[in-house]
Structure formats: structure tokens, C-alpha cells
Amino acid sequence: MTTAPGDELMDALIGRCHFPEAGSDVVCAVSGGPDSLALLVLARKAGLTVEAVHVDHGLREGSADEAQVVEAAAERFGARFRAEQVKLAPGSDLEQRARLARKAVLGPDAMTGHTADDQAETVIINLLRGAGLTGLGAMQPGHRHPILSLRRDETHLLCRILGLQPVEDPSNSDRRFVRNRVRGEVLPLLADVSGRDPVPLLNRSAEHARQVAADLAGAARGVDPTDCKELAVLPASFAHQALRRWLTNDIGHPPSAADIERIMDVVHHRAVACEIAGGRRIARTDNRLRCE
Q1: Strand (E) or helix (H) holding 274
Q2: What is the dihedral of CA 96, 150, 14, 158, to 10 degrees?
Q3: pLDDT above 90: residue 87
Q4: Strand order in the sheet with 25-29
Q5: Angle (nearest 5°) at CA 82 between 80 and 83
Q6: Treating both helix axes as pointing N-terminal to C-terminal, what angle do 152-162 and 34-45 enclose, rounded to 10 degrees?
Q7: R_g of the chain, CA atoms, integer Å
Q8: In the predicted structure, residue 258 carries a pLDDT above the cut 80
């Protein structure tokens, strides 16, 4: 029995992926780069019914043509295809605005082609932002990030074996973006200083941070996050976790460490109220917190 080119490699890679059951309907974000093309190929190999979605931000000339690469790959591997366009004005926070625009058209459950290398970059970026345990845990392995255990050189190899020609996005070398500098400068420097590949080490640290954060969340589940008396006598890590859970549910994203510290000032009667991100105000009345 003969095997098609790439079958042996795909079988090996799928064993390290986190795909749902064969036959499941999924949406894959496919930019046309090697990681997202590998995601598309591996999802189909895993027996999933795939809709490949290309999002064009219209930020550079010729970006719309990249959808044709994705459409051709989708047709070759038996996936549906959809092209979306979003409009972004030049300005600050371009990376973040682009990410939010993609998420809006892809939907919250879309699969992305993030790899272990992307995870390592995210750990460093979050560390530079002063993130706590949740941020240092970076991306959660699972169906939304099914190829998170794979390395970038493996997705590139798969594309080469299959004869796919990924899109080369010039923005990946744009030094205005923090991630590009972490990828091109910080990680190579860490490898040189340590004499080791830092990617597996950073992924291991992220896994440990996620486990500790999950343990804390479980232990803090019975804490009333609005009761100042209870919060004031708890270990800080438990009180912070209870507040983080409460506010994440209320405002839709985790509060910053600085926001938590400001709220703890209210808890300990060092302040009557405080402002936090998202246009919210935390106030205290009769030793009870409220979010306004």
C-alpha cells in the first residue's frame, strides 16, 4: 500500500495536536502562512469538516490576492472557503485592533495556527507587560489552538513536502510590532546566552503557570469577591484570584495587576473607591464592593 507525500509526517504531527472528534464542523483562520496552512491540512487529515476563512485587513497592497492561496489550498484538501475583509485605519495599537477585527469576523471558537514558538513569544510579551499567572500561562492548549505543541519548523516542513507555497507576509519583519522584535531579536539572544533553545523552556513555564492559576482558581472559588472583610484576611493570592474571576465575568477580560492592587486599597480602607480599566469604578459601602 502506497502513502501520499506527507502522510507519515502528518500522522506523527496529529498525534501531538488537540483536534475535536472526526466529523466535527470547525472554522480555521487561514492567513496563507505556513502555520495556518498546516492547520488546515492537519484538520482535514484529522477528519474534520473545515471552513477555511481568510481575513484581509487591507493594510498593504496585494493583500487581497493572498486569499487565492488559501482558496486553492481549501479546494485541494476538501475544505470550504470564505473570504472576509475588514477596514483598519492607520494609527496606534494596530496589532491589537487587527486581532480584535479578525476575532469579530472569525467567531470566538475559530481555530488558529499558533505554534509552540508563538507560545514562547507570548510568554515573553506578557512578561514585559507585567502579567500575572494567567498572562504567563499564555494560550490554553485545546481545540482553539490545536497545533500549539508543534514547532514552526515542522509546519514549514509539512508545507514543503506537500508542495504548498505559503504567503510571505512582509509585516512579519516590521520592527514596529513587539512580537516581531521578540521573535527576531529577543529569542535568538536568549538562545545565545543560555546555549539552549528557549522555546521548550518557556512553554514548560507557561504550562506550570496555567496549572498554578487553575489550582488558585479552584481554591478561591468559594470566596465572596465583594466581601471586604473576607478578602482582607485571605492570603493575597487568593483574594486577587477571587477579584480577577469576579471582574472577568463582569467586564469580559481579566483586570490588570495594577487594577487589582487599586481594588485591594479599597478593600483595606486605604481608598473609598478606585477607577479600573474599561471605564469601571469599584466602590465600597458597608464593607461590600460594587462595580459601577
Answers
A1: strand 273-276
A2: 100
A3: no
A4: 25-29, 49-56, 80-85
A5: 150
A6: 70
A7: 22
A8: yes
